[in-house]
Amino acid sequence: MPLEKIRKLDGDPLTRLKKLSPRVRKRVEALRNLQGQPGALKALLSEEKAVLKAGYEKLHKSLDTKSQRDALKALYSEEKAVLEAKYEKLHESLYPKRYEIVNGVVEVKGVDLAPVDHSDNKGTGDEKGVPNFWLTALKSFAKYEDEIYVSKRDKEALKFLKDIKWCRVDHPKGFKLDFFFDTNPFFKNSVLTKTCHKRINKTMAKNTTGTDIEWFPGKCLTKKTVKCNPDRRLKSAKTMIRPVDCESFFHFFKPPPVGGPQYHMQEDDYEIGSTIRDKIIPDAVLWFTGEAEEDDSIYMEFDMEAFEDAMIY
Q1: Edge-to-edge strand order for the sheet containing 161-170?
Q2: Fewest CB within 10 angstroms: 12, 29, 170, 271, which?
Q3: Phi and psi at residue 195, to the nearest 5°
Q4: CA dist., res. 50 & res. 117, Å (int)
Q5: 60 CB-near residues (< 8 Å, 6+ apart)
Q6: What is the DSSP code (8-state) at residue 216?
Q7: 263: left (phi over 0), alpha (psi -120 to 50) or beta
Q8: Which residues contact 278 (CB under 8 A, 6 or more apart)?
Q9: Are 281 and 166 in contact (CB under 8 A)?
């Protein structure tokens, strides 16, 4: 889809991209060209998985005993994992290129580095890479689905987000998300991690582990201060200021409290983690440009993981 055909949900055509300087728009075009490669790989993977599944379904019908079907299911899972790993390795060569363009590590061909005329108010033209790339992608997704929440206070911290990566973990089965941040005035951590473990039987809940964020004094985004009167009946009672929890994207990294409603909290965190892994990381460029907001087809893929969870016995 050419840039001229991109439409914004809540504004005039090209509003989002028109605000970018010509240099940044050129980099975004390079990112969009790069984005097309994972899309082609995803299509090929879907085709190969469909062929693999059809072959095993045909064999499944010819089996008589549960033990035979269990063995076939295990073999199918192994072959599917090998197939997915092959395509993941191909993706791994594309994400570093995206990182380099977004963070200004490399410059794309065709970018004019001559002195810039600032009179058009389309950015300074001197920006490094693609400013606010991940912040914009996350905000766009948050408008589309309520699984992700980004508060006004979160936005300032997310401007320092450089990259999001994920990898599989095996013990127990699951995946790990790493959020890489530049030096910022909000917290000391350079990487915030969330690990999501998949249940292996129906009696085991999915569980998650997170990162203790080392907030700088007065910069915690998951709490706000409120004034309260300990006893309104006493005129002499002094107003107290105490911290209370507030909505924030950064709650995602906090491990569930011991003794609390851990099952539901961990299930929610697992679903949010899966969303970031499956929808935001692969299609970050489309969320940045706004194209993903226009294309519901990226969500029409069959959720094989949910299907396999239902088949656990």
Answers
A1: 161-170, 173-181, 191-197, 207-209
A2: 170
A3: -110, 130
A4: 53
A5: 69, 72
A6: P
A7: alpha
A8: none
A9: yes
Place of tokens 């990182």: 99
- pLDDT tens, 198-236? 766 555 556 788 999 999 999 999 998 887 766 666 666
Helices (H), 230-300: 262-275, 284-289, 291-294
Whether pTM > 0.85 for this model: the answer is no
178-210 burial, b at 16+ Cβ within 10 Å, e below that, comes to: ebbbeebebbebeebebbbbbbeeeeeebbbbb
Cβ(289)–Cβ(6) below 8 Å: yes
- Can you spell out the DSSP letters for 222-245? SEEEEEE-S-TT-TTPPPEEEEEE
**H or E element, residue 191:** strand 191-197
Query: What are the residues facing 175 on neighbouring strands?
Result: 168, 196
